[in-house]
Every structure is written in structure tokens, then in C-alpha cells.
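Q: I'm writing up a methods section and want to include an example of the input and output format. Could you take the sequence below and give the corresponding predicted C-alpha cells, formatted cleanly so I can copy it straight into the document?
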Amino acid sequence: MPSSTSSPSLDSVLLDVAAVLGEEPADVSVDENLQDLGLDSIRVMTLVERWRAAGNHVEFAELIEATPTIRGWHAHLTAS
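A: Here is the clean output for your methods example:
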């Protein structure tokens, strides 16, 4: 699968994660452990599908192994 021509911004990752958590973006820190906020595997798959649809190459297993913070996931998404 080809890489995305445009990687997501830190803000867009924050907005996406906050949306699947049902939280306001201002209430979610980019360095907070997402598992502590209640992010489960179903919501991670929702994010994976959303980011794939936007043209990003992301695998569920790689995301699970990455640092479970918005900043960590952003770094993973932009490195792919």
C-alpha cells in the first residue's frame, strides 16, 4: 500500500482520538496515556479505518505497539 502524500497533523490526531473517546479535544492531553482514558481495541480499529480512509498506511498491531499517546501515535503516523 502506498504511503500517504499528506501526514496527519498533531491537531488532527487529537481531534480524531477525542471524537472516538467522546471527549472535548481541550480535555485530552497529547501526552496522556490513551488506555487510561478508556481507549479500547474497538476504538483503535475505528481510528485505523479512519486514517486508512484518509490515505495513511497504518496497521492495528503497529499502533498498539506504539507509545499509547496522541504524540506517540502522531510520530508513528508521520514516520510511516
